[in-house]
Description:
heterodimer; A: 2 helices; B: alpha/beta; globular
Amino acid sequence: MTYRSSVPLYWRLQKAKYTLVGTQCITCRSLYFPPRSVCPSCRSKGFTKQHKFTPSGTITTHTVIRTPPEGFESLAPYVIAMIKLDEGPLISGLVVDTPEKIATGKKVTAVFRKISEDGKDGIIHYGLKWKLVE
Amino acid sequence: MRVGIIGIGQTKMGEHWSKSLRDLSTEAGAMALKSAGMTASDIDGLFIGNMSAGRFVGQEHLAALAADHAGMTPIPATRCEAACASGSLAFRKAYFAILSGHHKIVMVGGSEKMTDIGATGSVGTLMGAGDQEWESSIGLTFPGLYALMAQAYMERYGLQRDELSLVPVKNHAHGVKNPYAQFRFPISVQDVAASPLVADPLRLLDCSPITDGAAAIILATEDVAKHFEKPVWVAGSGQASDTLALHDREELCRLRASEKAAQMAYIQAGVGPENIDVAEVHDCFSIAEIIAYEDLGFAKRGKGKQMLLNKDTSMGGSMPVNTDGGLKVGHPVGATGIKQLIEITRQLRGEAPNQVKDAKIGLAHNVGGSGATALVHILRRD
């Protein structure tokens, strides 16, 4: 079964997905990526403003996806890592390098790439992937 | 007031090509009624756990459908969803419904029909339990999430790959005697090592299967349940939540929701981990069982593997875990929580195929997603 998505689904996440714009709590200054509208620590006093992150981080754990979901078949096997951004937040990211090069502790930087296609004539989904800093 | 389990029923777990979701749900419910010596007209409320009938078979509004096909209308029928923890969530809601005084005899079921879509479809559907915007959208899968945990755990605590394999080896050995199991064959550490990689370091035999199945329990007030021969009592119930996305956790080697749910259940039951005679834990992927030992207080942090190396959690050990084979021998997601509680009920009644001698207190631990929901129930007999 294919679930074709509408344009707004991707459009509203453009800033975060294309340029790594997350949020910062106006009260405690904590940084969030992915973006959150409310800081979970400060709650009602914790509305957030936009914050653009530096696209640089370190691998903290990693895997190789060999049984991919729909839309990712042609990429498999591919690496997914947890990346600790230099500014703090931990995120999940697809790393474009081959599996044998990946190790915990290695530095990565963001690259703009096609992520997946929503069926043959659906929307092409773009965003950031990550690559090792040589 | 105490609430007791007075009836249990479950279908065989497997690929039920000739049965639909409604057939399986009705079959499990009918078996539970039969075991309690009751008919559908004795039941005054229905709760059903189901993760994703909408995506697996295109069917929503499942609770009314189940009541309809079981001939239970017009009683109130409610569906509960918390991904793979949907079954025990439904159980907790049914338990509360009786405690509230609004219900007297309630049926709580769980069901999932996972093989009506192809394997790729089921990978995507299961990932609905994760974060759609920030996990599944980048190509992450459920085996992938637990693989990230496994890799982090192995690097932090020095767990060896072959030690991790002791989980499916033990659970498959237990599953051989389970007549409801999808798989009833033993495996070796070598078999795990020879099975294909799914998400490194996890291999096929580390993963729970895609399963069709349903299970049902009849719960009743103490006034009703005390007249039954071997009532099993709900002694404690705990439920907790955590961040939906794995990357939003401070710790990848523990599930905070499991710890919190266990604490709630232990306090209510007035027991500790040392009092548990038998347990069902959520071993959706091998690493999950080792982390569960630690989250539930059975083992110290980082030492979970010792229970496997010492065979503490095997049949004949000090506290057998997953005596029916666990999720490794069948994981119909919405039904799993109920299936676990049925196994603990059988153990406390002395009717389990792998019977733990003189089991008095049992625990069931059910996790939704990568740990964003966890439920722990403690059952005991008189």
